[in-house]
Automatic annotation (TrEMBL):
This protein's name: Flippase-like domain-containing protein
Keywords per UniProt: Cell membrane, Membrane, Transmembrane, Transmembrane helix
Compartments, record wording: Cell membrane
UniProt key word Lyase: no
Signal peptide feature range: none
Amino acid sequence: RGLVWKKIVNFLQPDNDLGYLEAIRIDLYSQLGKYLPGKVFAPLGKIYLARNKNISKKNLYLSVVFDAILSIAAAFSISLFLIGFFLDCNINLFNFYLIGLLAVIGGLAATHHRVIQYLIKLFLTKRKKELIDLNFDLSWINRVKIILYYAFVNFWIGFGFFYLIKSITYLSIQNLLSVIGIYILAGVLGLTAFFAPSGLGIREGVLVLFLQFYFPLNIAILISLLARVWTILGDLFLAGGFYLPNIFKKIKYR
C-alpha cells in the first residue's frame, strides 16, 4: 500500500523527498491508527509523518484523500468481481459485475475536483486550519492506474488469507478466487464502518456469513477470529520491523 501511495504523491508532485522505503514505513506506522475509533487517525498520521518530505501541504492532503477513496473503490470492484465465482452459474452475473464497474465509476466520480475540494475544505474548517489552494492535476488515466494498483495489492493480501485457511483445514484450490473476493469485501465493509475500529465485528461477521457455505459454523467463526489475529500481528510485525532498527541505532550511538 505504501508504494501505491508513493505513486500518488509522484503523480501529484514529482519533485519530492519521499523515498520508496520511507513511504512504506510511513504507511505501516499510520495503519496502526485504524485500530482507534473514528477512522481519522490513519490519514492524520500519514500527513504528520510525511510533513518534512518536501511535499506541499496541498499535495499531501490530496494524496491522502486519493489514497482513501481509490483504495476503497478498488476493493469494492475486485471483491465483487471475484465473489462472482462464488455465485451459482444460473445467476445473471452481468448485473453483479455491473455493480463492480459502478464501484470504479463511483470512486472516480468521488475524485472529481469539486468533491475533493469540498472534502478537504470541510476537514480543514472543522480543524480550524487555514484553507489552501486545492487545484490539482491528476489525469483520469492515472486515477484508473491507482485503482488497478490497489486491486493488485488487495488480491495478494487475499491470496495470503486463502493459504491461512489452507494451513488449518482443507479448502479446494477451486475456491481460491471466491475466497479472496470474500476477504477483500469483508475488509472494505469493515473499513467503511465509521463506528468500528479496524472494522472490528463487521469484518468478522461478513467472513462468517460467506465462509459458512464452505465450512461448519464453528470453523467459519474460528477462521474469522484467526484472520483478525493474523492481521493485527502482521501490522505490528511490519511496523516493528521498520521501527526497531531506529531504536538499535540510537542505542548504538549513545
